[in-house]
Amino acid sequence: MEQNRKPAGMDIVQGELDRCVEILEKNMERFGADFPSACATGGKYRIKKNDDWTNGFWTGMLWIAWLYTGKDKFRSLAMENVNSFIKRLDDHFILDHHDIGFLYSLSVGAAWKVTGQEELKEQILRAADVLAGRFQEKGGFIQAWGKLGDEKEYRLIIDSLLNLPLLYQAHEISGEQRYLDIAESHYDKVIHNIVREDYSTYHTFYFNKETGLPDHGATHQGFSDSSCWARGQAWAILGMPLHRRLSGKGFTEEETALYENICGYFEEHLPADGLPYWDLIFTDGSDQPRDSSALAIAACGMLEMGRTERAREMLAVLHSLASSAGEPESEGMLLHGVYAYAEGKGVDEPNLWGDYFYMEALYRLWDPQWNPFW
Ligand code: GLY
Question: For a 10 Å CB count at each end of the chain, is N or C smaller?
């Protein structure tokens, strides 16, 4: 099938936003003050506590639904979630990892952006301090996972670009330079090490613990150490322009070229119908599953870059090949995501970030004046 090149029009944008809101309303009844799991099984999310790296996507969707509809029930549940995130900070509950930005930008950070409540500032700074606490001076990067300083975990991962906006928000609130210094140093280490010569990306990159020097790239969720995990490439496609805006520095000439080539690699490795396989090593004719969430993230990257037409084309692909409209029992908005293929987790299923970034892309188009939560 040829890629759906006809950009999604406002009828699709509005129709899909309405549909996403309906799904949220239905899901809210089942999840109450709890949270949906990271990924679905048979189209259904499990009921979980606030204990994963993905809980913020749920709260972020509630905030978008509130902005879109003005219905108070979304705001009240989002605020209830915010209290749960503050409690998670108090208890330091499952926060020994770098995904603090995914969690707090879309919950407490978004709450501050949309309500302006002053008391939230302190909580944003607390969250940013947890993230900043994982900065490794030797190497100049934020350690992604594991015990701090563990040689086997002395690495960063490409997804981390989405955690940096929290540090920029902390700088905006506090004026403290250290947040900027850490964000800049980490960003620099990501873009100068994780991109290969052909502009594909590693998922993760190790540094030598003794010298801090770059060591080697490897995968965690991709097909192999030398292949290109589709969602990883998409994290760069969104993460780089977020840094461009939030740092206030724009792109250097070198970054512009790098960015174009990273996008080029992604585009050139899309199958004819435009919906990426979960790893870009797979091409037309493969029976491997697709990852719709990678395309939703890339669409947000295009919108962050002001490339509205390309974003609309990507949304048209998602709408025609992955929207759950034809499956009214689905609790997800986007079908055909892949969480972790090797572990058999969330394969060909909805996942929370796919749903979130689909909604974010739709809402960015719906309200071009909107200041996203990142
Ligand atoms: N950040 C983890 C993932 O993209 O699956």
Answer: N
CA dist 282 and 289 (Å) reads 9
| Segment 128-138 mean pLDDT | 98
Confirm whether 5 is domain-assigned.
no
Q: Is 231 in the pocket of ligand 1 (CB under 6 A)?
A: yes
List the residue whose alpha carbon is closest to atom 2 of ligand 1: 159
Q: Residue 302's closest CA among 262, 352, 257, 349? A: 262
- Domain count across the chain: 1
Burial bucket for residue 215 (CB in 10 Å: 0-12, 13-18, 19+): middle
Closest atom of ligand 1 relative to the 235 alpha carbon = 4
Q: Is the pTM of this model over 0.90?
A: yes
Ligand 1 geometric centre to CA of 102 (Å): 10
Q: Which atom of ligand 1 is nearest to the CA of 157?
A: 1
Phi and psi, residue 167, nearest 5°: -70, -35
Q: Is the CB of 159 under 6 A from ligand 1?
A: yes
User: Given the CA of residue 232, which atom of ligand 1 is nearest to it?
Assistant: 4
- Cα–ligand 1 centroid distance for 245 (angstroms): 23
Task: Report the CATH number at residue 121.
Answer: 1.50.10.10
Q: Is 34 noted as a catalytic residue in this protein?
A: no
Q: What is the DSSP letter of 366?
A: H
Q: Give a yes or no: residue 320 inside a domain.
A: yes
Q: What residues pair up with 39 in beta bridges, in sequence order? A: 351
Q: 373 in a domain, yes or no? A: no
Question: Is 345 part of any domain?
Answer: yes
Mean pLDDT for 205-231 is 98
Is 159 one of the annotated active-site residues of the chain?
yes
Quick check: 1 pLDDT over 80? no
Q: Distance from the CA of 159 to the center of ligand 1, in angstroms?
A: 6
- For residue 13, is pLDDT > 80? yes
Distance, in Å, from the CA atom of 365 to the CA atom of 54, rounded to the nearest integer, reads 24
Count the helices and strands in the chain (H runs, E runs): 13, 9
Contact 219, 231 (CB under 8 A): no
Q: Which domain holds residue 280?
A: 10-366
Sort strands 204-207 and 155-157 into parallel, antiparallel or unpaired: antiparallel
